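hi! just following up on the protien thing from before. the input was this:
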Amino acid sequence: MKRAFTLIELLVVIAIIAILAAILFPVFAQAKAAAKKSADLSNVKQLGVAVALYLNDSDDMMPQSFYFLNGTDDSAGFAHWSGTVMPYVKSQNLFVSPGDSSNGLSPVNASDLQVPHLSYIANAAMMPTKRTEWDPANVVNTTSVEEAANTIMVAPMTSDAHCISESAGNPKTMRSHWPANAFNVEDGGMPFDGSIPSEYAAPNFWGVSKKKLMSDFQECSQLGAEGRSHLVFTAPFRFGGNANDPYNGGANYAYADTHAKFATLAKTTDPASYQWGKRAYSAAGKPVFKPGTMESVD
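and the predicted 3d structure came back as:
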């Protein structure tokens, strides 16, 4: 005589499966996140190597973050650093992070010399905004960079278009070609924009305070990037952490010596080990001071 499962036995089996699933699913999720983080690190490393190859062909001069294709205005579009180094990269897929929920932001104009989807952003201290030959920014020679192994060259770019737009809710103001930086023109004042000639007359610059950074990251999604640190253009919490918890989680960065590594926002902006540039190399190498002091960052 065949014996069927009783209802209680079935419920017990289902309960066991549910318990095992509850235990294993977080493990699978962690393994998937770790794989994305490793793949992202590989992307960043290869982008760093691509820039190094570009430097070999350009007398150690860094590419510009972007410039006008016609040399005069934006009517013909922008030439972006991703387009400049593309011959050394070969694959557009390397510009898209597996950890980027947006699958990379798009160019402003169809005519832009820029990859179609972008998850990474340049550090303006290394790759400046120099739209025309008349812009005051200077193209950076890597021999002038202090502690290249501790100076960010390429960072993760935000997946939130509002945080790299002049005003939230207006997609026409999204600027995926902008570079990021961590400088203020005045201590606690307006962020260094990089496209305003009068900024270059400042004798020095200041790093951004932790308090200011936290509020900027919390507000940019609703209010846009206008008036906020240009670090909101980045994604420092791509692999964990958030604006309320900057010491946990973080993202991968490529440095001026082309190596790549994982770092937290708190680490990259620590005045005792400032990774966004001890000097504003694209602004005549002027010093960067610790917030609230007249002491240079370390």
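The first helix runs from residue 7 to 56.
The radius of gyration is 22 Å.
cheers
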